């Protein structure tokens, strides 16, 4: 191959198919005052009782959010972000705190309230998801430990009830599901009650089995459910979601680099002809 053509081809490969580094969504790019949160906004042009679609970005990820104005109060679902760390106050009023008492890294963390298909993450292109850290919120943990006006105490009065709280993460590519991963945020199904647990530390969830994806959908389920869905608070916290952008397919970047090389070669021929004329 012509040496100039070879050099241009190599340059094309470098430009079109660069080395991809992992990108972390750590929520630190999102401004928050101390001991505060963001859980969505409402738009006056959107009718009352209608969800206001919204969201926020961190790293390569866009986190979905919906807030609804009920003409006097608001509710949200999907994703929020927070730096609240009250680990002792029970109840809905403390729904934005993480039970660990701190983010996994930095100050901020993501927070999901999962109802239906409201909790979703979309990526700016195809990625391979390495994983993320997750843990329980204070609201969920204290509800499972002691029960509340909506939900039962996990294990029941005897401690023998086989209760559980599960998160399911489904990878999506072009709208189609790739595969799913389950993670138990609490598990009381053991024959030996001393093995029962509620997650109270940041734990790494490996997402590599999802393969190449462009979005993720989150669902939660619980042993304590009724006619209207889960009684257990459907929350979890996330930090340091790590993904790597997938390079273009080989056929695409070879073609693109070849076109780049031919373009450069053609310009060289034009310059040579101009000199001769």
Structural write-up:
- By secondary structure, the chain is α+β, with helices and mostly antiparallel strands.
- It folds into 2 domains: 1-18 and 248-277; 21-246, Jelly Rolls, CATH 2.60.120.
- Helices cover 18% and strands 38% of the residues.
- It has 3 helices and 15 strands.
- It has helices at residues 3-16, 138-146, 250-276; strands at 22-25, 37-38, 52-58, 61-69, 74-82, 109-113, 120-135, 164-173, 176-187, 197-198, 203-206, 212-222, 225-226, 229-230, 235-245.
- The strands form 2 sheets. Strands 4-5-6-15-7 form a 5-stranded antiparallel barrel.
- β4 (61-69) and β5 form a beta hairpin.
- The model is unreliable at 268-277 (pLDDT under 50).
- Globally, the shape reads globular
Strand pairing plus helix content: what structural class? alpha+beta
**CATH-wise, what's the superfamily of the largest domain?**
Protein of unknown function DUF4465
Query: How are strands sequenced across the largest beta sheet?
Result: 4-5-6-15-7
How would you characterize the largest beta sheet? 5 strands, antiparallel, barrel
Low-confidence stretches: 268-277
User: Any idea how many domains?
Assistant: 2
Strand percentage lies at: 35-45%
Give a count of the beta strands, DSSP E runs of length 2 or more.
15
The CATH top-level class label of the largest domain: Mainly Beta
The count of helical stretches stands at 3
Radius of gyration: 25 Å
- What is the H-and-E element order? HEEEEEEEHEEEEEEEEH
Amino-to-carboxy terminus distance: 27 Å
Question: What share of the residues lie within helices?
Answer: 10-25%
CATH topological fold name of the largest domain: Jelly Rolls
Examine the secondary-structure arrangement and name the CATH architecture of the largest domain. Sandwich
Name the average pLDDT: 88
